[in-house]
UniProtKB/TrEMBL annotation, chains A, B:
<dbReference type="Pfam" id="PF00725">
    <property type="entry name" value="3HCDH"/>
</dbReference>
<comment type="similarity">
    <text>Belongs to the 3-hydroxyacyl-CoA dehydrogenase family.</text>
</comment>
<dbReference type="InterPro" id="IPR008927">
    <property type="entry name" value="6-PGluconate_DH-like_C_sf"/>
</dbReference>
<feature type="domain" description="3-hydroxyacyl-CoA dehydrogenase C-terminal">
    <location>
        <begin position="187"/>
        <end position="245"/>
    </location>
</feature>
<dbReference type="GO" id="GO:0050104">
    <property type="term" value="F:L-gulonate 3-dehydrogenase activity"/>
</dbReference>
<dbReference type="Pfam" id="PF02737">
    <property type="entry name" value="3HCDH_N"/>
</dbReference>
<protein>
    <submittedName>
        <fullName>3-hydroxyacyl-CoA dehyrogenase</fullName>
    </submittedName>
</protein>
<keyword id="KW-0560">Oxidoreductase</keyword>
<dbReference type="InterPro" id="IPR013328">
    <property type="entry name" value="6PGD_dom2"/>
</dbReference>
<dbReference type="InterPro" id="IPR006108">
    <property type="entry name" value="3HC_DH_C"/>
</dbReference>
<feature type="domain" description="3-hydroxyacyl-CoA dehydrogenase NAD binding">
    <location>
        <begin position="7"/>
        <end position="182"/>
    </location>
</feature>
<dbReference type="InterPro" id="IPR036291">
    <property type="entry name" value="NAD(P)-bd_dom_sf"/>
</dbReference>
<dbReference type="GO" id="GO:0070403">
    <property type="term" value="F:NAD+ binding"/>
</dbReference>
<dbReference type="GO" id="GO:0006631">
    <property type="term" value="P:fatty acid metabolic process"/>
</dbReference>
<dbReference type="InterPro" id="IPR006176">
    <property type="entry name" value="3-OHacyl-CoA_DH_NAD-bd"/>
</dbReference>
Length: 316, 316
């Protein structure tokens, strides 16, 4: 793939596609964007007007961003002039298979095509690609992409290593933090880790051991504060006085005993009764919360936190 | 319990006890502290000199903090004059049982006695308390207590509700975020949630799906950034457009499919071979990392983040 990417094609301008567009523009790229939904063009303009200014360490002023994109009804005539595609269409296999066959056929064969798919692995939808499927992979962002640095780069078995490296470098050049998922695995990495914590959270709340509100507080006032800065493995290591082996030898048995107890008290997502009980419990709390305020507060602190981390890295 | 707490007894001045002492002093309390370890008094002084200044929203200047504590060889003569005890002794049942029998016998019967125990539930070590065991509970902090707001308040079955409320109010008055764990459960809340994520992290890294470094990055650049600000349940709710029921109905099946796959690929903490392989894998990364720098960077951003959250709450 080319190392100089200037024009990105964004396919699908829903929540994820619009946020990618804001990021690309704020980092100095030109964007050709398309979405067949009624009113998509106006919605995108509103979104960009509001959110381009939020991108941490933007290199282009918000006003200028708005001049650097073109919304098109049909992207096909533009496919030959793109340097990279970020696809954000619906998570339907038939849809993505058709779309990727078209994209692969109509774009220059060397350009990277990344899908934001959170569920479908690309091996399932490249089956109709005969031009160069080795340049197709998943670039799964974390919502909203213009703020949260994580991108999971997931090749399919036929993706070339060069494109994995190319995707890594491209996202990194936008101040994203790409991670490489070596094998397609259900839920990739982030959704699995999230499922792990949610399953135990649902169990603790359902069993009445802690309220839903306090469960969340346990994370936002403790675990999550650490995990924003050091991951689970580094947190273990620092907890072991800088020694992961020490941690495992001394805390492994306790960890195992907790996991055994958790296994005996698992929440059953397949049980309608348990799920309904949980919904009722959670909704009793959520109904008293001003969600707009929660979200606004989160976005403000999130942008500051991402910026602080970027600045800390830049100064070292 | 008395609502006006002025003098706190801190028993055990290791990492946790010293950090509690820094917090209590920076928030204007007087502290009587004891620890039988050789050199404990000098170590504590060094710790307080370095860390009292780190406490977010301190009400007492670091220099003044150092005048408000007394290190004593034997705390027994002081027990009658304390308003609250925070105990941080070794996690050994025989030790804690003896200690709590003494504390319960020699303190005024109305004062709260909290243990920082992370493992032993207090029901196990109040068996020798005949004065007033209903004022004994766990107040389990998250390391380091002078920075991380979380305190798990865990009553034993005989703890009076008044003391649970009292502990909650006391910690809250220090800008901590107490959560109430309604029943003694192995690992309380935080360690269970942490075990959940670690188990899947170990599995993914051991299976070669992601490197240890990228596993951690998935958390620090994505999940953890969110969890520092909104917990798992609120994150679900916002992900469902403000509706937890919608989230469960639409994403529950995917969640279940990931959990099923995770169950089939569980890491076995009881397998020496798997544990050794994981240690080798993780140590290959950690050996290249400057841990002092990681820790320093974390503490700096952690203090800023805690302060930003306190300020945001105060301004609303």
């Amino acid at each position: 793939m080319s190392s100089s990417i200037q024009t990105v094609g964004v396919i699908g301008a829903g929540v994820i596609g619009a946020s990618w567009t804001a990021l690309f523009l704020a980092k100095g790229l030109k964007v050709i964007v398309t979405d067949p939904a009624p009113g998509a063009e106006a919605k995108l303009r509103d979104y960009l007007q509001e959110y381009c200014s939020e991108v941490p360490n933007a290199t282009v002023a918000p006003g200028a961003c708005l001049k650097n994109y073109t919304f098109v009804e049909d992207i096909e005539p533009y496919l030959g002039s793109l340097d990279l595609i970020q696809e954000n269409g619906p998570e339907r296999l038939d849809f993505k298979s058709r779309l990727f066959a078209q994209l692969d056929a109509k774009t220059p064969p060397h350009i990277l095509i990344a899908s934001s798919s959170s569920g479908l692995p690309s091996s399932e939808f490249v089956t109709g690609c005969s031009n160069n499927p080795s340049r197709i992979l998943i670039g799964h962002p974390f919502n909203p992409p213009h703020l949260v640095p994580l991108v999971e780069v997931v090749p399919h078995p036929g993706t070339s290593r060069d494109y994995v490296t190319g995707a890594y470098k491209f996202y990194k050049s936008l101040d994203k933090e790409p991670v490489v998922v070596n094998q397609e695995t259900p839920g990739f990495i982030a959704n699995r880790l999230q499922a792990a914590i949610c399953a135990e959270a649902y169990s603790l709340v359902s069993r009445g051991i802690v309220s839903a509100e306090d469960l969340d507080k346990t994370v936002t006032s403790g675990l999550g504060l650490r995990w924003a800065l050091t991951g689970p493995i580094m947190t273990n290591t620092l907890g072991g006085g800088g020694d992961f082996t020490y941690f495992m030898d001394h805390l492994g048995p306790a960890l195992k005993s907790w996991l055994d107890d958790m296994a005996m008290n698992q929440f059953d997502l397949g049980s309608e009764e348990q799920v309904n009980g949980l919904k009722k419990n959670v909704n009793g709390w959520i109904s008293q919360v001003d969600l707009k305020k929660v979200e606004g507060n989160r976005d403000l602190l999130l942008a500051n936190l991402v910026k602080s981390k970027l600045d800390q890295t830049a100064n070292q």
